[in-house]
Design goal:
95 residues, mainly alpha, 65% helix
């Protein structure tokens, strides 16, 4: 029951932090020197709309590190709780 309550509380935290991180990351397209901020997107891209999402996330991590870290940690906790539920209820043999 405790894991379920944590899961229910973590879900809105992840949703808000993901939205805030995505919103901040989208500002990279408005920068004039957006090619200086990209890491994984090929340099020969001509339009800022072609920037990879991972580069947008790194841009958001640079300008709002706390929200981005909260997004990562809440996502990992949600995945960890989901995996523990799968192991407990699906993988265990029923007697």
């Amino acid at each position: 029951m405790k894991k379920f309550l944590i899961f229910i509380l973590l879900f809105p935290v992840f949703a808000y932090s993901f939205f805030a991180t995505s919103w901040t990351g989208s500002y990279i397209m408005l920068e004039e020197n957006w090619k200086e901020h990209i890491v994984f997107t090929p340099v020969n891209m001509k339009e800022p709309q072609q920037i990879y999402e991972i580069d947008k996330f790194f841009y958001a991590l640079k300008y709002q590190p706390i929200i981005s870290i909260i997004c990562i940690l809440s996502f990992l906790l949600l995945i960890g709780i989901s995996i523990s539920w799968i192991k407990k209820y699906v993988m265990t043999p029923k007697v």
